[in-house]
Design brief:
The chain is 65% helix and 1% strand. The chain is mainly α. The protein has a two-stranded antiparallel ribbon. A hairpin with a 7-residue loop joins β1 and β2. The N terminus is likely disordered. Bound molecules: zinc ion (2 copies). One zinc ion (ZN) binds next to α15. It comes from Chaetoceros tenuissimus. This is MYND-type domain-containing protein. Keywords: Metal-binding, Zinc, Zinc-finger.
Length: 406
């Protein structure tokens, strides 16, 4: 009799199967790796279907134990949050989190530290009030005083680095650097924290702190930059923490900041290094090919993408994502928005379309692009009156075998 009722139960819910954790993990991985919109939607759909199926199972626990249901629900919800966060769906992250908090006591899913952090980061992206900032800080401090257990988990490290970027974006440079230094100590072999820290120093310098900086700044800043770049170029396994765009723009800025030295030859070499790296950055963006410049999702063939009317270069999956990076954060975690990149991208696109031609027009557009790159560094980013003096960088530049910075 018992057997019979079990069979009929199974038949009744055949339309809502719980996906296996393995199949979801695989899908999750693929969606993250490719940033493919179709895969993302598929994964989100499966998770939601899975949660629905679990709900039905919960009321009839013949096949699964309560503990199993609980664990599965928790994993599904946590992965959904991560997924939505990575595609910049900040509203959804908060919504999922709130749904969990609102569910009845016996259905509540315990969330990991990482998810609490993601939720707080999502809140900050949407509403950068001081209350949110305080909550984020206390969350991180609790974790640090706890010994940052599980920091070696890749996802967890990634969340912390994201927190550094966000703090920086909010101009909380001291906090960003303090957290970055702690991460550097914990993740000695990784290059991610070291790189983010170098960017924090650079951003602080650029945002007007340079007047208060002591004379050791160039060395404190240039050495870590050089170190991070060396590790990046040699790709020691963790370089995927860093996006190529941020790397190119950092190298470009470092070279430019040193170019006002007395030695004319070295000076022009540093300047052309800087311009070359801005162009390498633009090339990196050029090959994004139909991906959203904010979330990196690749649209499907039938999806209409928005193209910036200024440069006709930058694509976006939605108006929301275009707005999100207009003023800042167009380059991961830097206070550089598309606003100042737009004329640069326009010049690049114009040149790129005729770059194969060997004529006067191509040459003219090429010169114009070079000028735009230099202007972007000197005026766009405002580096022209922040360059180091000869005496500041002498020790650094000439203590190396090579004369050029990078
Ligand atoms: Zn997008
Ligand atoms: Zn544009």
């Amino acid at each position: 009799m018992g057997k019979k009722s079990r069979r009929s139960n199974r038949k009744g819910r055949s339309s809502v199967q719980i996906p296996t954790a393995d199949s979801l993990r695989q899908l999750n991985k693929e969606a993250f790796k490719s940033h493919d919109n179709r895969l993302y939607s598929e994964a989100v759909h499966k998770y939601e279907e899975g949660l629905e199926a679990i709900k039905i199972q919960s009321s009839n626990t013949i096949d699964l134990s309560i503990l199993e249901i609980f664990k599965m629900k928790s994993t599904f919800s946590q992965n959904l949050i991560m997924m939505e966060y990575s595609r910049c769906g900040f509203d959804r992250v908060i919504q999922i989190y709130n749904d969990i908090q609102m569910s009845p006591e016996n259905e509540k899913v315990p969330l990991s530290f990482m998810n609490k952090l993601q939720r707080q980061l999502a809140m900050l992206r949407l509403d950068s009030s001081s209350e949110n900032k305080d909550q984020l800080k206390s969350l991180i401090n609790d974790r640090i005083s706890e010994g940052m257990k599980g920091y070696n988990d890749y996802d967890e490290m990634f969340s912390f680095l994201e927190a550094v970027r966000l703090l920086r974006n909010l101009k909380y440079y001291d906090e960003a650097i303090t957290l970055g230094e702690k991460l550097e100590r914990l993740d000695e072999n990784g290059v991610g924290a070291e790189f983010e820290n170098a960017v924090s120093h650079l951003e602080r310098y650029r945002s007007g702190y340079h007047k208060q900086t002591d004379s050791r700044f160039p060395n404190n800043f240039l050495l870590p930059v050089k170190d991070a770049c060396y590790k990046f170029e040699n790709g020691n396994g963790k370089a995927e923490c860093i996006r190529g765009d941020a790397y190119m723009i950092m190298v470009a800025q470092s070279n430019f900041l040193c170019h006002q030295i007395d030695n004319k030859q070295h000076s022009s070499q540093l300047c052309s290094n800087a311009i070359e790296h801005v162009e390498r950055y633009l090339e990196w963006e050029w090959y994004l090919d139909r991906r959203c410049f904010t979330c990196l999702q690749k649209g499907t063939a039938t999806e209409v993408q928005l193209v910036c009317s200024g440069c006709r270069f930058a694509c976006y999956c939605s108006l929301d994502h275009q707005r999100m990076t207009w003023k800042k954060d167009a380059i991961q975690g830097m206070r550089i928005g598309h606003e100042i990149l737009c004329p640069l991208m326009k010049a690049y696109r114009k040149w790129r379309l005729v770059s194969k031609e060997d004529n006067e027009r191509a040459l003219k557009l090429r010169r114009r692009l070079d000028r735009e790159c230099a202007y972007f560094l000197s005026d766009g980013l405002g580096l022209k009156d922040k360059c180091f003096q000869e005496r500041d960088v002498q020790e650094f530049l000439y203590s190396q075998n090579t004369c050029t910075l990078l």
